[in-house]
């Protein structure tokens, strides 16, 4: 296999990139500027060397602690549990949350061998105890796995004096009921609030 | 700007990659294996160092001549003019063409300052004369620019005893060869008409 074919195979392993997109990207790199290729290539090669997980919450960071854990302006009594590091970015973009986070880096998936130990539930409990968390928001995705994971964490904390909530799921804002799926409409009805 | 944000900006400069896809790719690289990142990064960084244009046809190659120009099994009296190197890959995948190629690496586009000189029409004429080409297939894309470029080349060769054809049926007008299916390209080759 030659250099170009090899690059196309490598690129098509990226998420959402098929063979056609990978080929288009490779030819674009060939046609583009060498300096850009050098910078991009180096960034990719050295990514995991420069970035690691925050020792407190698991968010990706270049420092020992991420910018959220090291901030003095966050409410340390509220903790939000998310599946992935990028979910933090999405929640932060709303500006509606001022507490701390805990990243699971996955969901419970017994068939894939991912259980409570692999997701670091002991670290989560440690973190909750250390901070003295009063409110826990379970913000795993509204999928079968995300729901199971949230439920498991809720059971783990039974008996503790912590207010536990689950992010609402239903119709997306700007959505149209005509095109929504049954499950979303069902959840939207079950989760209805006084108005 | 930190390392991760910087990588997302770099990735979103790739064709067809928006900010959302770039972010998804970056987090996937962070979560994935370091060895893959190293190999991919190095491939991208060194791409233009390893690959250059074939001195005869302009196709991308790692050798002095590309595999098609250096093959003994090709019909040297037939030349197919294409816009981009990847168009060769598409035509070769049909197995319907046995002649040689000439890559323009673009189309005539006066507004962008791309004229006959920039596209190397003198090299094209040299190549036609050297090979003693009897048949020329104009396989630029069926777009306004591709058509103009084909027409320009046809006029350049007026008076010479060369059978000139233009790929025709099969490709949707306004489309791009890079995204066409094999059958459409095959039909376009077989259904070419005197030009």
Automatic annotation (TrEMBL), chains A, B:
UniProt keyword terms in alphabetical order: DNA damage, DNA recombination, DNA repair, Metal-binding, Zinc, Zinc-finger
Domain spans labelled Toprim: 77-172
Cross-referenced Pfam families: RecR_C (PF21175), RecR_HhH (PF21176), RecR_ZnF (PF02132), Toprim_4 (PF13662)
UniProt source species: Oceanispirochaeta crateris
CDD domains reported in the protein's UniProt record: TOPRIM_recR
Entry's family note: Belongs to the RecR family.
Annotated zinc fingers (C4-type), start-end: 54-69
The protein, known as: Recombination protein RecR
InterPro entries xrefs: DNA_Rcmb_RecR (IPR000093), Rcmb_RecR (IPR023627), Rcmb_RecR_Znf (IPR015967), TOPRIM_dom (IPR006171), TOPRIM_RecR (IPR034137)
SMART domains named in the record: TOPRIM (SM00493)
GO BP term, example: DNA recombination
